[in-house]
Structures are given as C-alpha cells and as structure tokens.
Amino acid sequence: MKPMKVKSLLSHFGEIGRIFLSPEDPKVYARRVRFGGNKKRNFEEGWVEFKSKKVARLVAETLNTTIIGEKLSALFAICYPSREL
Fold this sequence. Notes:
Blueprint: H1 3-10, E1 16-23, H2 26-34, E2 43-50, H3 53-63, E3 66-67, E4 75-76
Antiparallel strand pairs: 1-2, 3-4
C-alpha cells in the first residue's frame, strides 16, 4: 500500500502524526519489472504514529492481524510498543 492509502484507511480512527513505509527490496522490484510487472513503487512494512496514545492503543488492539485493503498481502500485524523499547 502507498502512504496515502494507509493514511486514508487509518485516519478514521484519529489524527495521524507520521507515517513511515520501507520500500521493497530493489532486486524484487527489478525482477518484477523485467518480467512485465508494474513499475510502481511497493512498500513492505512500516509504522504509523498517532497524535493520541489512547487512539494508538485502540487501533493496535482492534486491527491486529486484520486484512485491510483489497489483497491478502495487506495483512497488518499491529502492536503498541511498551515503555521498555
């Protein structure tokens, strides 16, 4: 998913601070393009910061291991980091 798609999906829960998504491996991208796939940039994983801790905890509890989006690959493993991290 693209950053704007993630923002539009998760902004229903509360105000979003920052979004960081790491791009896919360049070798995977090159192979996909070489064999006729799309040339658009894909992202593998990332994190979202909410302005409110309460909202972040609620999203983590409700959306963990939930398929969000059109594809099965859009499975979210969401966690709320504890203070020890």
